[in-house]
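Annotators were shown the component list below and the corresponding predicted structure, then asked to write short factual statements about the assembly.
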Amino acid sequence: MSDALNTSWFDPARVNLLVGLALFIAFLIINISRAKGGSNMYIRPMAGLKAVDEAIGRATEMGRPVLYLPGLGDMSEAGTLASIAILGRVARRTAEMGCDLDVPGYDPVATTIMDGAARQAYIGAGRGDAYRPGTVHYVTTQQFAYVAAVSGFMLRERPAANIFMGSFYAESLFLAETGNLTGAIQIAGCDQVTQLPFFVCACDYTLLGEELFAAGAFLGQEPVQLATVAAQDWAKALAAAMVVVSLLASALGHPELGQLLQTR
Amino acid sequence: MRKGPLVVTFLVATSLVAMFFIPHHKVQEGQSVLLNWANVVYAFALILGSLTLWVSHQKKVLARADGWQYSVVTLAALSFVTVAGTLQGVEEGTLVNRYYNMVNSPLASTMFALLAFFIASAAFRAFRARNAEATLLLGTAIVMMIGRVSVGEFLWSGFPPVTEWLLDVPNLAAKRAIALGIGLGAVSTALKIILGIDRTYLGRS
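Structure shown to annotators:
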């Protein structure tokens, strides 16, 4: 017998997620209004992002390229979307400083979009003519073939700065260690918790967790973008408070609150 | 300013978010259709990607740039797989299938096997006791390594439970804290794109 078709119009088990999303959107609207009203949107300085300018400057002085790796994620992954925003900022700085940029792509869709973002960044910097076709180029969708191609590039071209931003998996340590051997300044940001220790070991600076998603806003310093980071911080504070309260409630014999936070 | 792509992004994204909360079978079927469309876009992008791959390596070969020999191998492999795959398909026993199993897979496995050496060199650098934090990391790593091998239990029966505690309590707490931040960051990034705050993906600042 086949399963009965679901004819309900709302999944009550997901009401907590809906409330969470509504709260996040409310935080976003409040902070964007504050930003537009002229409030100061302060984000604590992140050493890894302050080092981006230093790394690009060093590459320019040495006459070597900057290698930007957007990770192995596709367009459905938030890490890739964050990486595209960061690439836009990095490409603008390389355009302004007249430094070569190389972006080997893994996912063909993401590569095409990154090519557009980098090209636009060069045009925005008034250096559209300096954008070299092939700056952002597709390599392969085979994980270790990608590692071989990028490692080969690192060893042959000796980029002065390697910037890893996006979703990385088993290839993270290969790439970061090879870059470390070449003596490049390395800055990484990754949304895969299991890969962060590898980047911490092999890179000069590593963005942890949500810092990857705040990086685009930090580098751009546009008030509305910074407002989204403030909203993210408010949501994080609320989540942390709820965890503590539910923990205390559970300890006092009331696990119901903790169960309300469970999702499926 | 062109608003079409922003409107399409907003409508498709909000529809998919709504579909997540609506379990009705008709809505879920619609969601599957929408997600399948992504595969069609992917197929076209793959063709475009292959063309850029060809052009960039062809340039290297013609200019005799550093490492141009590797580009010849890339072009030869790309041509072979494209022609053989088009003529024969990729099923069991075909040329592409044999190439994949006899060349590609062993090469990928070889690369993966090198990971052990990279871990050793990274660990050597990370475990230098330069300051209090690095010393704590070194001590924890030593306990973890001893506790995860048979000889650890032989030396002291307390090693395995200590390693389990390290993994399940401090390690898991840190991982969950980072994962919470990543989750919120992902939601924030998605909302920025849905609401048109971040337009870099459209090639706009």
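Statements collected:
1. Helices of chain B lie at 4-21, 25-62, 68-88, 95-113, 115-126, 132-147, 150-155, 159-194.
2. The two ends of chain B are 12 Å apart (CA to CA).
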